[in-house]
Amino acid sequence: MVGPILAHVEELAAEPATDMLSVVIPEYVVGHWWEQPLHHRNALRLPARLLFTPGVAVIDVPYLVEAGARSGDVRYGGQSTVLAVLTDPMTQGPAMRQNPQRRAALLDAAIEVLAREGSRGLTLRAVDAEAGVPTGTATNYFANRAQLLVQILHRTRERLVPDPADLTGPLDTKVLLGRLLERMRRERSVHIAMLELRLEGLRRPELQAELAAFQGAELEANIDWHLEAGLPGDRQGVVLLYLAMLGLIVDDLTVPALLEAHPVEGLIETMVERLLPQESAD
């Protein structure tokens, strides 16, 4: 009996979509020593064998069989086992580790997996492998895959923040957009991961809501910064420039050959001139 169960568990644990597999094992606890031979000891053998199976958690549920009770009268053991779960008020789930450096490294690894393998390949186990840490490490930082996706979203912003030196001195919209394109090419995985998050948001309404709120706030902040910096153009012009630049970036990332006949530097210059015209001196 133990062999087929182990084979099935190992098969499930090896599936790409499986982050952590929980195996619940009911165990009869008899009232007298002479009753023990009447019950198999699989409940003892299985946890011992599963202990060394990566990505598998074993949950042992004891049941007390009372001597002299009527047939089928089985209840929870008189000695209750309490599994205490620490709750994180921010996630309404198990409390997560708070090592900022390790969390950032795991999120960077998740970005690489998401960009390379797509949403279907993003599992907590895959993140551990990419980060080069023991299997199960990511589960200490992210309660589930949905939480991981949201934190990837916020990590992308940290990775794409421009160098403060690029925002000092006389500002030129064309130069700023050129530097944006350079950052995109340096951080190619981050932008591809963002595209994957957008696609995943189509299937996950909660992620789509998070994306809309996050990117909406980013767009508003960029518009405000542009206008407060005294750069040419009005609010609508900045939105149009955002949409045009987004299309250029997507094509440069996904079908770069499409733009070979159209140098992007010239495209950026034309976009700025047409969408953010300089005010007349009159």
Folded structure, characterized:
The chain is mainly α. It contains ten helices and five strands, in the order αβαββββαααααααα. It has two domains: 2-83, no CATH class; 94-275, Tetracycline Repressor, domain 2, CATH 1.10.357.10. Helices cover 53% and strands 10% of the residues. Helix 6 crosses helix 10 (264-275). The radius of gyration is 28 Å and the shape is elongated. The model is unreliable at 67-95 (pLDDT under 50).
Which helices and strands occur, and which strands form pairs?
Layout: H1 2-13, E1 21-30, H2 42-50, E2 56-65, E3 74-76, E4 87-88, E5 93-94, H3 100-117, H4 124-131, H5 145-160, H6 173-186, H7 188-203, H8 205-228, H9 235-254, H10 264-275
Parallel strand pairs: 1-2
Antiparallel strand pairs: 2-3, 4-5
List keywords for this structure.
282 residues; mainly alpha; Tetracycline Repressor, domain 2; 2 domains; three-stranded mixed sheet; two-stranded antiparallel ribbon; 10% strand
The low-confidence parts are: 67-95
Q: What gap, in angstroms, lies between the N and C termini?
A: 90 Å
- The CATH topology of the largest domain corresponds to Tetracycline Repressor, domain 2
What is the overall pLDDT average?
80
Report the biggest beta sheet as strand number plus sense, adding barrel if it closes: 3 strands, mixed
Portion in beta strands: 5-15%
Radius of gyration over alpha carbons?
28 Å
Secondary-structure element series: HEHEEEEHHHHHHHH
What is the approximate shape?
Answer: elongated
CATH architecture of the largest domain: Orthogonal Bundle
Please report the total strand number as a whole number: 5
Which sequence of strands runs across the widest sheet?
1-2-3
Instruction: State the CATH superfamily name of the largest domain.
Output: Tetracycline Repressor, domain 2
Helix content: 40-55%
CATH C-level class of the largest domain: Mainly Alpha
Continuous helix count: 10
Which structural category do the helix and sheet elements fall into? mainly alpha
How many distinct folded domains? 2
